[in-house]
Amino acid sequence: MNILLAEDSGTDLKIVLRAFEKSSCQNNIFTVRDGQEVVDFIWHQGQYADKKKYPRPNIIVLDLNMPKLSGFEVLKRLKSDLQYNFIPVVMLTSSQQEADIVKSYSLGASGYIPKPANYEDYVKMIEGFNCYWQVVNQLP
Amino acid sequence: MEDQKVIEELKLRNKELLEAKRAILNVLEDLEGQKIQLEKVNKELDSFVHIISHDLRTPLRGISSFITFLEEDYKDKLDKEGKEFVDEIRNGANRLGDLIDDLLALSRISRIKNPYETVPIRNLIDSAGESLKHEFKVHHVSLTIPDNMPVIVCDRVKMAQVFLNLINNAIKFSSKNNKEHPKIEIGFTKRSDSVEFYVKDNGIGIDPQYHEQIFGVFRRLHTEREFEGTGVGLSIVKRVIDDHGGKIWIESQLGQGACFHFTIPANLRPSNIL
Fold it and tell me: Which of A40, A81, B75, B241 could disulfide-link to A45, CB 3.0 to 4.6 Å?
């Protein structure tokens, strides 16, 4: 499964990547560090122009608070584009505010995961994530 | 002549009364302004605590995760002292995590208003018992509750937190009683204007000089090693009782257990549900 992971915090990125590595499922993970990079990656702009090297992801894991373009702005752009609006987007964020959860789903998010408190919980979360998206669920 | 004097006197009194009334109205207006201002500041403070608590989680997640990486990747390279340092960092991170959780719980209690509804108190105690099942088993806790616990109008979610915190507190402070297992008794008295509840334990008790302090945020009377916890549980309880317009107090002597009493007014009505 090709996953595009958008995370601006270097610390959180290392934690989530390590948790993915520990998981029993194999994933091909591409990482970007801000909202604009997500847009560039999906629409093959700038440094992500090479379609072979940067294939369309099966799923996008999106942080909410990111520089340049926020998770909400990225979600809005993605879901208003008929070419890419079918790609599931799962929010992975520190915010547990009800307003953020509601807004994410109303903008078309397929899931909302609060960032776990520690690495051990990240590992459990990634196991559950893989189980749902790779085993239970059928992706486009 | 005499009548004229009385009329003049009355006019003067009337003028004085009008001035006094005006002064009182001005004071009331000032008080109302101060109240609005205080409510605004309180709201801002709660929101500040909420945001800060969330922001603190991000670096904490890094600390506790990287400690795990250190343990996993460099386990063989750390000597005994190095491992002790790692344990200390982990304990500190866990403690900070508990503090943040409790700060968030405290800010949630203030920010979120749930509707008042008719609640059988027995259900809340049963659900607290379910949450504390492990503690009950480990410490061989005996809990006594009368069969006829009342049904009251309150915020169900917050009142459940009150019973959970008080029972948890009772277990914690009676678990180190060397003479007997923890005994908790819950009871109530119906009064004309309120219902008074109590949660009694056979724990270590509290010296009367500290009875006021224990409801303050992060107030602890013991070290973390003696009794774990951050000191937020009872402040949450007090906030909930205050919000309901009730009162809370403690009766206790050092070494003789503690009994927490609280009242919930009888005149509360269920919120309108559309």
Answer: A40
